[in-house]
Structure to design on (185 residues):
């Protein structure tokens, strides 16, 4: 029987969104989980497609009403996985690919311990910094924060995470092939 839940975690800029976008379309029975966030939409992002964009008050109500499988504050914004979305997809027989930070993955595993973990890593922190700068979406201050958090996230994942697979995203084609094989299982 094929696995139903896959969780990808990676520091910001490691390439998980690029990998997901290149591979998920090959699996018609798989959907990408949509997270709720208090982060402002980036150019081109659509509510209900990329994220469920919420105010801080709306997000806090979701926490109070136990409507999230997991949630965390990352880079000064809240992110979380709505339970209703996960249960709806599973009831429709869909497989679900999640993008969660390493801390959220620990909480997610308490609810869905059968989830397969995939840790996406940059080849180095220097290359990660180059990628973040090349996106031209964040200030120097935000990039510094993301790099600081990346160090903490990688260390936490190695010590506390449940990741059955690790992909070092050094060569995009190789990383895509590795992810494709994992999602085929």
């Amino acid at each position: 029987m094929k696995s139903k839940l896959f969780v990808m975690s990676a520091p910001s800029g490691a390439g998980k969104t690029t990998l997901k976008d290149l591979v998920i379309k090959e699996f018609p029975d798989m959907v990408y989980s949509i997270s709720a966030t208090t982060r402002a939409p980036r150019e081109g992002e659509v509510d209900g497609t990329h994220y469920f964009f919420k105010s801080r008050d709306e997000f806090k109500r979701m926490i109070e009403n136990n409507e999230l499988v997991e949630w965390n504050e990352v880079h000064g914004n809240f992110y979380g996985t709505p339970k209703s979305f996960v249960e709806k997809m599973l009831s429709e027989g869909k497989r679900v690919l999640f993008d969660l930070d390493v801390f959220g993955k620990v909480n997610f595993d308490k609810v869905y311990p059968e989830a397969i973990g995939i840790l996406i890593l940059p080849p180095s922190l220097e290359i990660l910094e180059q990628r973040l700068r090349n996106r031209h979406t964040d200030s120097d201050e935000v990039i510094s924060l993301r790099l600081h958090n990346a160090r903490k996230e990688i260390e936490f994942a190695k010590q506390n995470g449940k990741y059955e697979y690790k992909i070092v995203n050094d060569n995009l084609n190789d990383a895509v092939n590795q992810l494709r094989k994992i999602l085929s299982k």
Remarks:
- Residues 5-183 form a domain with the Rossmann fold fold (CATH 3.40.50.300).
- The two ends are 8 Å apart (CA to CA).
- The mean pLDDT is 92.
